[in-house]
Specification:
single chain, alpha/beta, Aminopeptidase, Glucose Oxidase, domain 1, 31% helix
Amino acid sequence: MTNMSIRRLLLAGLLAATPLLAPAQKKPANALGAIKEADIKADLFALADDKYRGREGGTLDELRASVWLAEKMRALGLQPAGDDGTFFQFFNLQRTRLTKASRLSIGAHPLRPNHDALVFAPTTYAVQAPLVYVGTGTAAELAKTDIKGKAVALLFSGQPPADMSFRRYLSQVLRDKSAELLKAGAVAVVFVADDRAQNIYEHWDHTYERGRYGLPGDANVAAVTTAPTLLLPASALSWVQQAGQQFTADLRTESFQYPSVNIVATVPGTDAQLKNEYVLFSTHQDHDGVREAVQGDSIWNGADDNATGCAALLAIMRAYKQQPARRSALFVFHGAEERGLLGSRYYSAKPTVPQKSIVAVLNAEMMGRNTPDSAALLGSIPPHLNSSDLVKTALEANQQGPKFKLDTKWDQASHPEGWYFRSDHLPYARLGIPAVMYTSWLHPDYHTPKDEASRIDYGKLLRMTQWMYLTGWAVANRPTSPAREPGFKLER
């Protein structure tokens, strides 16, 4: 045997006995196929069913729906990541409202607070003063009347700017005009509804009757003694204008706490180091509960807001369970979002994983309505942009998957709805954690009993879910976490 033959045999033996050097680690194939429209639809119909009575934050209905979601997570094989080895992180919300002993009257007209007159903020306040009527409250009309020490009545008027809901516009006008009149010396402000405001009066008394919510210690639920702002029905105009009437208020408040809950689960990552970092998929499970009946329906089921987000996260869980990523996936269903982002404020401050280990937050909020080919990614333009890196990944995922036409106007600081500030990504963004929100934005059924499961575009919701998953999958498998935007600062 020649020396060359011996060397060939030795080389062959070495190759047989020694494994080849591993190539650079490839990204694992995703499990996009595990996300199915039929699963999303079934989960959404179940959660937005009347049996959960609208899942109002801080009620047994929210807790019952939360238990259903936790059981779905357990059945899918996810690991609990709440407190004490459970899927749950309980927290208290604080509620302040007017007591039933509160009284209002104008002249000979007694007014039941939040039945005959909407009171826009609970306050402990007593006053008796002359009532003066100033028309629509223009500068010229106010110049004719001494309002110091008096209750001021005026007719609401005005039209909202484009892209602003009338209810939001009404609240803004009442807030700003009341502040102006109180600063000028008024002791109370009484608005009378015009035709458009009358619709708000008829269908939103239950909102103001509930009072205000916050986390314990929040300023907005502390006892206050500020002058009240009221809204009367349009029918009151005929007698409110009468001269010589007294306005009398004896308003009292009460405050108490009760529980809400975040639901938290995880799919651990596969990489020995990166599994200690988390991509957080966020949504909220609560809605508005049982309220004023509209066309005979008093259960506000919140199918788009936000059973769509819940169904999307369950679908993404199925994909991660089938194929875990290098980083861990963390799923958080936030409680009491409709009460003021309370669950996300609580979890972001007291997370069940190290706060610094959360590398990105992908938030699902109302993803199943409006035009089939359009959507929005909030947090994608300044001043809301806190990670160009994360946004680039999300835009690439959109091109890889659904190819939505992206509407950026809802993300602009000048947009009158302030949509960026109204969902659960916000508390994380305030902490500097890269965060974006997936949404198909508002529609006429928003916060009405008409937001039903039958009105959802399930094909669009499937594509929104796929887009969110593909973004998270890319983040979860890349070598480095998304870079944070230097100098990030929100406008408010």
